[in-house]
Every structure is written in structure tokens, then in C-alpha cells.
């Protein structure tokens, strides 16, 4: 579920989000609930409320949102995992306790950096101390399943400071850490600054050193690298995101949210006013659809699945994709990548090798051989 409001738009962010000032937050939340009433699955296995900054909702609106969502879907009884994304400036103990009482069991807190200069460069509105206060507030309220979200390799970052920050985070004892290297996505402030020469990327060698250090420190602390950028204690992996990486079905609710059901991808209207109007007038807000051919879906299944340390089973990938053609082009690609040392086989599954992990995106892209608009087979 996507609630698109933030205190301010981060300079690196390419997700649909808008500053909250002057926005009809309550009206948007009610429209999201209306869409959930029309489209959300009953008794979902997982729920992920992202944004934007869902924790920005005030206490009354948070209560209304979660209570009515439960009336609609019965998620509090059915879900094995309910996650809500938070930013430090909008999370205190009372709000965390309220969310826990209403069925939220997992929080993802956006620390992003422990360097104040980097936070300012990112356009974040909180300081380092606020991140730790938010984490402590969640813990004191009784929430145990906590993720800390981090970004490394920002302009000016240094390896030693990144290691110190990560060790400090690990000492907090989160069950999960998400650590992403900074990406300069199109149509962001950062991409414009990069193009205009106002920013410079870190050298690729330094990014790789930061990545290796991340895996080393998290592993030593008992946090398993179950996905390229995600580290968890045993049994604390994000089940909702694992569903994405397995290329399974999901329903997206809210402005710009994307769904993927039975090989068909569909996206909601990106603007808030357009989203609210279409929900009210048409009963949905789907603005585009994309039907994937089995071959294209097979490639995507490998592309996503290779991000996981568990890797990909060719047989399972064919079943997920509904691929029944003669031969298996993905298996051919995987065998070639095994020959050149990027993939390894174990127990009938292919996974990245130590050589392939640092260049995972390039390796996985080898499976995207068919354009999305290819005809169905």
C-alpha cells in the first residue's frame, strides 16, 4: 500500500511522493481505503505500507486507516508480517505503540546515514540523533521486528566512516538491515546535479569496498545476506519482499502503486488528484497495463531471483513463468554464466558466485532478452 506523503522530497528519490504541506492527506487515505475495499485480497499473507512516509499520519488518521483496513481485509488475523515504513521525524513511542496495537508488527526506519553532512545532501529533515530516538521509541513501545534502512557511497563518503556507522547500527540489535549503494535515478535532483557537475560519484572501486565491508560486518554479527542489499537474522527476512523477488503475484493499492497478478502488470495513476477522482468515479485507478509473455516472465523470474542468496531453480522458474516452450533459454544463459564463473550450481539451483555478487545487476540483466511488449507464446 502506497501513501505518498513526506515532510520533504529526498534528492535521490524517484518514487512517487510529494511534500505533505497543503495536501489532502485525509482524502487520499480515504481513497486508498476505498480502493482496498474494491481490490485488496481478503486475509492477505503479508502487508507492506510504504511511501512516502506512512508514519507521517497523525494518531487519529493512523488509527482510522489501520482499523478500517483490517475491517476490509482481516489482515490482523491473517498476515504473518505487517510492515510500515517510518522516518525518524514522525515516529515516537505513542505512535509506535498505536501501530503495534492495531496489527503492525514490523517497522522499517529510514536512518539512511549517520553522517549529518550526508543527511543534508540527501535532503533529509531529521538529524542523526533523531534516528536513534525513533529506534528506541519503537523498541520501548514493544516492537521487536525492526529494520534499519541505510544508503552508502554518497558523494564524499569514506570507507572508514561507513564501517563505523554500520557497527554502531549493528550494536542496536535490529533484526534486519537494508543497505543500498546510492543510485542516481533519472528525474531526481541528484541526477540533475550529477549531469550539471555539482556532484561526483564515488569511484566504483570504493563502492565495491563499501559493499564488501557491509557483507563482512553483517555476517560477523549474525545477519545473513539473503538478498544483495538485505541482511537479516535467521527467520527475520522480509517475507513481503521475498514474494517480489520470487516473481509471485501482489496487489498494489494507492497512488502510483503497481500490481502483478497472473502475468499482468498494472499501475495506478501517479497524481494524487487524478488517483482520487478515478477511485471515486470509476472504482479503480489503473492507468496502464502490461501483459507479459511467458518467455519475458521467465527472464524476469531469473533477473529477480538471482538477487537472493537462495538463487533460482530452473524448474520452479519455468512453473512461475508458465513457460512451456521447447528448450529453456534461461537455462542456456545460466549455464554460460556458470562457465565464466558468475553463477554456481548447488542442489539444482543457480546462485551468484563471489565473483558475480559485486556485479549482480549486470549478471541478472543477461536474462532480460525479450522486450516487455513481446507477443504471448
Cα-atom radius of gyration: 21 Å
Total strand segments = 15
In CATH, the architecture of the largest domain is Alpha-Beta Barrel
Percent of residues in beta strands: 15-25%
CATH topology of the largest domain: TIM Barrel
Question: Could you tell me the mean pLDDT?
Answer: 95
Helix content: 40-55%
Would you identify the CATH H-level superfamily of the largest domain?
Answer: Aldolase class I
Instruction: Give the helix tally.
Output: 15
Distance between the termini: 32 Å
- The arrangement of helices and strands along the chain is EEEHEHHEHEHHEHEHHEEHEEHEHHHEEH
Largest sheet: 8 strands, mixed
Report strand order across the widest sheet: 1-4-5-6-7-8-10-9
Question: Which geometry do the CA atoms define?
Answer: globular
Count of individual domains: 2
Low-confidence stretches: 371-377
What is the class of the largest domain in the CATH system? Alpha Beta
Strand-pairing-aware structural class: alpha/beta
Oligomer: single chain
Amino acid at each position: 500500500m502506497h501513501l505518498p506523503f513526506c515532510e520533504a522530497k529526498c534528492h535521490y528519490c524517484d518514487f512517487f511522493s510529494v511534500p505533505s504541506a497543503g495536501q489532502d492527506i485525509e482524502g487520499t487515505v480515504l481513497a486508498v481505503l476505498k480502493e482496498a475495499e474494491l481490490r485488496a485480497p481478503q486475509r492477505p499473507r503479508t502487508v507492506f505500507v510504504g511511501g512516502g512516509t506512512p508514519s507521517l499520519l497523525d494518531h487519529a488518521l493512523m488509527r482510522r486507516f489501520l482499523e478500517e483496513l483490517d475491517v476490509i481485509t482481516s489482515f490482523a488475523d491473517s498476515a504473518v508480517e505487517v510492515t510500515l515504513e517510518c522516518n525518524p521525524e514522525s515516529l515516537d513511542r505513542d505512535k509506535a505503540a498505536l501501530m503495534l496495537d492495531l496489527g503492525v508488527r514490523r517497522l522499517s526506519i529510514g536512518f539512511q546515514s549517520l553522517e549529518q553532512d550526508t543527511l543534508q545532501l540527501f535532503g533529509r529533515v531529521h538529524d542523526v540523533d533523531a534516528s536513534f530516538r525513533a529506534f528506541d521509541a519503537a523498541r520501548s513501545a514493544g516492537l521487536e521486528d525492526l529494520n534499519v534502512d541505510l544508503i552508502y557511497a554518497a558523494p564524499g563518503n569514506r570507507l572508514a566512516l561507513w564501517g563505523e556507522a554500520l557497527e554502531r547500527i549493528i550494536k542496536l540489535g535490529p533484526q534486519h538491515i537494508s543497505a543500498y549503494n546510492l543510485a542516481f535515478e533519472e528525474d531526481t535532483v541528484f541526477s540533475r546535479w550529477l549531469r550539471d557537475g555539482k556532484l561526483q560519484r564515488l569511484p566504483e572501486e570504493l563502492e565495491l569496498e563499501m559493499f564488501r565491508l557491509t557483507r563482512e560486518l553483517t555476517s560477523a554479527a549474525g545477519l545473513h545476506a539473503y538478498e544483495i542489499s538485505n541482511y537479516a537474522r535467521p527467520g527475520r527476512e522480509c517475507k513481503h519482499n521475498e514474494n517480489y523477488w520470487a516473481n509471485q503475484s501482489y496487489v498494489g493499492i494507492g497512488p502510483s502503486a503497481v500490481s502483478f497478478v497472473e502475468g499482468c502488470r498494472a499501475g495506478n495513476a501517479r497524481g494524487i488528484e487524478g488517483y482520487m477522482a478515478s477511485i471515486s468515479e470509476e472504482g479503480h485507478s489503473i492507468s496502464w497495463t502490461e501483459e507479459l509473455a511467458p518467455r519475458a516472465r521467465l527472464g524476469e523470474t531469473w533477473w529477480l531471483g538471482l538477487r537472493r542468496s537462495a538463487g533460482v531453480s530452473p524448474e520452479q522458474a519455468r512453473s512461475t513463468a508458465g513457460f512451456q516452450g521447447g528448450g529453456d533459454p534461461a537455462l542456456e544463459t545460466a549455464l554460460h554464466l556458470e562457465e565464466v564463473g558468475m553463477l554456481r550450481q548447488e542442489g539444482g539451483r543457480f546462485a551468484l558466485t563471489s565473483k558475480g555478487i559485486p556485479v549482480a545487476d549486470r549478471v541478472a540483466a543477461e536474462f532480460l532478452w525479450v522486450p516487455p511488449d513481446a507477443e504471448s507464446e
